[in-house]
Design goal:
- By secondary structure, the protein is mostly beta strands.
- It has one domain: Beta Barrel (Porin), CATH 2.40.160.
- Helix content is 11%, strand content 49%.
- The chain is built from three helices and 18 strands.
- It has a twelve-stranded antiparallel beta barrel with strand order 3-6-7-8-9-10-11-12-15-16-17-18.
- A hairpin with a 3-residue loop joins strand 16 and strand 17.
- It is globular, with a radius of gyration of 19 Å.
- Keywords: Signal.
- This is Outer membrane protein with beta-barrel domain.
Length: 292
């Protein structure tokens, strides 16, 4: 309850001007989905690479920290159609290549302030991949974003299925700042996009992940030896608050490329099963180049 109050108070005091920039639709690696807050007016193609401190799946992490690296490609059409592909390599995981993601969707505008997307993604996993999301390889995502001028609010709905099926709802609020002066010349600037979000949903993937790990325990973490009880399995099926997070991306921008460093403080709640998640700070570093 105290986190809900803190979230509400923070939303109430957000009162700075936000702006819409012409940029590419980017992959949000914490959510494995597309960031649709940006309006695209041109056909574009972007290529990017990311390094992250730990792999996260809807507010949950594996018992062992997995640093990861990705290579991304996103195509945006003038019509609003977009398609993307991502290659994942998780540090410390057994496979040479852990995952390949592909997805496609449509960006729509209901009016000048309200926009959204509908998309489908499929995830191809190496059978030896140990990260949690390897239990769900299909995702339908619908996200709507409203620009209040002072800040933006969004609500995303996700349905994932595979070995485990779950639904998630993610409300979020963000602000956008940028410097009014150039850093090295008049074509570059810094941008800041602080945001807060809350993830609600089921967590059947926790039970199934635990089952799979029991059949092949990891001696390094000691994970896979405990047995979940029926009460825990029932709790996993309940729709509940899963996570609160506070994020601060800082980006250096030029006309065709961006370098972004992002910090996120994550507070998992209602953790069931064997995951034993705790508060964690995540760091991501991303470079992407935009062709248009």
């Amino acid at each position: 309850m105290k986190y809900i109050c803190a979230l509400a108070l923070t939303i109430f005091y957000l009162n700075a001007h936000s702006a819409i920039k012409l940029m590419n639709i980017r992959i949000d690696h914490d959510r494995i989905k597309i960031d649709t807050d940006t309006i695209i007016h041109k056909q574009s193609l972007s290529l990017g690479i990311t390094a992250g401190s730990d792999a996260s799946f809807f507010g949950r992490t594996s018992p062992k920290r997995y640093r990861y690296y990705t290579a991304d490609m996103v195509y945006n059409a003038k019509s609003g159609f977009f398609a993307y592909g991502t290659i994942w390599k998780v540090s410390g995981s057994y496979p040479t290549l852990d995952e390949v993601d592909v997805g496609a969707g449509y960006l729509y505008h209901i009016n000048k302030n309200l926009s959204g997307t509908a998309s489908y993604s499929h995830f191809f996993f190496n059978r030896n991949a140990q990260i949690i999301k390897s239990l769900s390889n299909n995702n339908i995502d619908i996200k709507n974003t409203y620009n209040w001028k002072l800040f933006k609010t969004s609500v995303a709905f996700d349905y994932l299925w595979g070995k485990a099926s779950d639904i998630f709802v993610t409300p979020a609020i963000t602000r956008y700042y940028e410097t009014k002066f150039g850093i090295f010349d008049d074509k570059d600037y810094l941008s800041f996009t602080p945001g807060i979000s809350m993830i609600l949903g089921t967590q059947n993937f926790v039970e199934r992940y635990s089952d799979d790990e029991r059949s092949d325990p990891n001696p390094e973490t000691g994970f896979g030896h405990d047995i979940d009880n029926l009460l825990t399995a029932h709790a996993n099926r309940q729709f509940n608050v899963l996570n609160y997070s506070f994020k601060l991306p800082i980006a250096y921008n030029r006309p065709h490329y961006t370098i972004e460093a992002a910090t996120k403080y994550s507070i998992p709640v209602n953790v069931e099963g064997q995951l034993k998640n705790h508060k964690e700070v995540f760091f991501n570093l991303t470079f992407y180049y935009l062709f248009y």
